[in-house]
Design a protein that fits this description.
It is a single chain. This protein has about 160 residues and is α+β, with helices and mostly antiparallel strands. The chain contains 2 helices and 9 strands, in the order αβββββββββα. The strands form 2 sheets. Strands 1, 2, 5, 8 and 9 form a 5-stranded mixed beta sheet that branches. Strands 4-3-6-7 form a 4-stranded antiparallel beta sheet, with no helix packed on it. β1 and β2 form a beta hairpin. It is globular and about 70 Å long.
Length: about 160
């Protein structure tokens, strides 16, 4: 019965306070990343570099860094990776954006599905010769050391590949 229910000033005040507390709790949880803790994280060191094809910077290429010697069994097995900017530069990430890579020697693979603003999918062909996207035979190498690392540019010559085909 609607008319029989009366709420006094203290009831309104309690309701207002409860709503305010709920809003504060919700607001305080916003902005905190819900990233699960990664077990066995290896120390990582900043790595940056660039990718050139036939002497020109390549944007939107994906690079994956495969360790020359396997990571320890109890360590995270996340592979360092990067995506090139439009100017061909990249920063490597392993666990978080631009955090770097564990120290060691790497074989680097490249996947590039073309330039342009149109959306590319995994179904688009890789325009890089197979020798650069197979970790066993890639000629691209990187050495990551403790501290800041700037790699020499990775250079791929498509014109030589097409001439020898």
């Amino acid at each position: 019965m609607r008319g029989n229910f009366r709420q006094g000033p203290s009831g309104i005040r309690c309701t207002t306070i409860a709503i305010g507390v709920c809003c504060l709790i919700l607001a305080s949880s916003c902005g905190r990343p819900k990233v699960p803790e990664i077990q066995g994280k290896l120390p990582v060191f900043p790595v940056k570099g660039s990718l050139l094809i036939d002497g020109k910077p390549v944007g939107q290429a994906q690079l994956v860094f495969f360790p020359g010697t396997p990571f320890p069994k109890d360590a995270s097995q996340f592979l360092p990776r990067a995506r090139t900017n439009d100017d061909g530069t990249f920063t490597v990430m392993t666990y978080a954006d631009a955090d770097g890579a564990p120290a060691g020697n790497y074989r680097v693979t490249v996947t590039w599905r073309g330039a342009g603003d149109e959306q590319r999918t995994d179904d688009d062909p890789n325009l890089i010769p197979p020798m650069y996207h197979n970790p066993r035979i890639t000629q691209l190498r990187a050495k990551v050391e403790e501290g800041e690392n700037t790699l020499p540019p990775f250079e791929i010559k498509l014109s030589e590949q097409q001439a020898s085909s």
